[in-house]
């Protein structure tokens, strides 16, 4: 067995990563997966004519990451891992799309971001799955939607009101974020801004993950004060979005009471983030080496009051929402994802916890404030819309408690440490638990200490396929509800 | 006096009806809410707009909205105003009433299919499915009333109804409840449909008229809300005794229309929309209520024989 063992945020010399024959690597991956590990990164780095494939697997119980690589030189195909380990399917499709090296035996080599969106006139357009028969009809939704949401295309094959198959088409929001990271590798402040907009609703999540990756490469030891403020901001983001989601879920079933109550609470929380950083979504709050804004005693007091009030309000509103028969009739048994499916596709975040997969980077691979205060993992079993809604409520209450604990603990040290030069030839994996789930950034530096590859994985990348699977055999009129219960990002997927 | 009341109702009631529903919902949600006559302002705004008509559609798409508005106004004239009677009435006019509305729905469905949009086809299929449940229930309801009074026109049914010996509070409640379910269904309100959603896949009525714009859309909006008003007037006929002072009857009529708007508002505030596959169960409630009333009347009539 040759793996290089690292931890979250532990930067390692790139030469330590074993470089294997692909078939050996594949065998090794299958073995590790069977031992309970899961894939967190699978990406390539092109140097001249060679493409280096990096694989990062996570052992969540022991908080370890295993990494290995393989070089493709003059080869244009490899033996697909997907038939054995399904969770690799999208990673391999992405790898194929980016480097043209084909995973032979992959069951569904559909373009990831260049299907309809990126197709040029001389290329063959990807054909959707088609279903034929009586009472069978096809419904295409998007890429332009009603309401203010991002572009994405959904192709439903229905039998009457029932969905038989849903195919999701992405790429309309592709901005070339990873290329932009390399183009602007000299301007780390610029990159921090860029990371804030990887997914517009996960500002703190992505910016924090980026900042920690750079701090690890630059050997910056962030002060306790900065760690605590960052963690507070991350949990505020989680509470804010979860509240918004609960409001929207209630809205999708036309339940006005829940819609209005949670919507009003969300405003209070994002305004608290604004009180800290001047932006309701936390833009500019995170800095490389710390934070740009302090939480003084007055703000602390105000925040505590807001949270105390919020806790009462959330308990009350959740009690009403989750005991309303008409709401439960819509939420329960809608869009079920089984634990088995969740593990197969590598589901992450609250959506995974809602079907019993105990994954939480805050506990499994702790970072920032979670190294000081361990987080308990909550899971539910039913994997339906109800579970995904209820887990949000549970996490809101949990996050309120975390913030309260952080606010009470002593804060010392400066806001921000100066930036050092990044160490050359290093490899670091920065993982964190955004509100939507596991965010993974992987950075590799070259011999002059500059970024030469920056790989981003938003939780949406893992989870979109779950939406397609969850709605199978559900009524097509329940699709918006199922979709909302995952609330995935288009831009986070498209990058 | 009758034409004055009818014209007033036609001009104001549908807008105020929606305005009241929205106000109740806004107050419940802790908001101030839009002006009570906002639907009227929206209607006027739509009338001033131009129209975009899809090239794939035929003349059906263009006549449907106009036919809709004509049909509801015509149907409204068939319904008696308590203690004033109706504009015109003849034996069996309730059949005409049901089928004029049915015809307008038929045209809306055709127009929706005419656009060729998969969304609108879905909406049309849902609308037709649910209408097939409402229609028999409505005839059981009116048929029972006809049987009870021995009359076959709206005006004479309602004229004799409240003085007829067999008309009890029980039947009154059953019929009113059944009619209220019909208002929710025909008006596309919660729990049958969600009038506020932007999610095409969940819509019933709204999705059929996605392609309409400008004055046509104003007409559709008007006829949808007028339908709820005219069914409320029908309910008022059940509740208001025929022999009271016209002034009191008119006040009661306005009260009942407003009350039914408030009730719809409250329902939309308090309960979620039913799952699409459960909607028929809810509408069958109307059939059940009508059948119970029918049974009660049959027993009463047999007892008298």
- Most strands sheet of chain A: 5 strands, mixed
Strand content of chain B: under 5%
Look at the structure and give the mean pLDDT of chain B: 91
CATH topology assignment of the largest domain in chain A:
Cytochrome-c3 Hydrogenase, chain B
User: What is the number of domains of chain B?
Assistant: 1
Helix content of chain A: 40-55%
Shape of chain A: globular
The shape of chain B is: globular
Radius of gyration of CA atoms of chain B, rounded to a whole number: 19 Å
Based on secondary structure, the structural category of chain B is mainly alpha
Radius of gyration of chain A: 22 Å
Number of domains of chain A: 2
Count of DSSP helices of chain A? Answer: 16
Largest interface: A-B, 31 and 31 residues
Task: Explain how this protein is built.
The complex is a heterodimer of chains A (495) and B (305). With 495 residues, chain A is of the alpha+beta class. Chain A folds into 2 domains: 4-104, no CATH class; 177-457, Orthogonal Bundle (Cytochrome-c3 Hydrogenase, chain B). Chain A is 41% helix and 19% strand. In chain A, strands 1, 3, 4, 5 and 6 form a 5-stranded mixed beta sheet that branches. In chain A, a hairpin with a 2-residue loop joins strand 10 (153-159) and strand 11 (162-169). In chain A, helix 4 (188-196) runs antiparallel to helix 5 (203-217) and helix 5 runs antiparallel to helix 6 (224-252). Chain A starts with a strand and ends with a helix. The mean pLDDT of chain A is 91. By secondary structure, chain B is mainly alpha-helical. Chain B has one domain (2-29, 36-304). Chain B contains 11 helices and no strands. Chain B has helices spanning 2-28, 38-48, 59-78, 93-114, 118-149, 154-161, 169-186, 205-208, 214-239, 246-270, 279-304. In chain B, helix 1 (2-28) packs across helix 9, helix 2 (38-48) packs antiparallel against helix 9 (214-239) and helix 3 runs parallel beside helix 9. Chain B is globular. The mean pLDDT of chain B is 91. Classes of the chains: A alpha+beta (495), B mainly alpha (305). Chain A binds chain B through residues 137-141, 146-147, 161, 250, 252-257, 259-260, 264, 324, 326-327, 329-330, 334, 475-481, and chain B through 25, 28-31, 118-119, 121-122, 126, 190-191, 194, 196-202, 268-278.
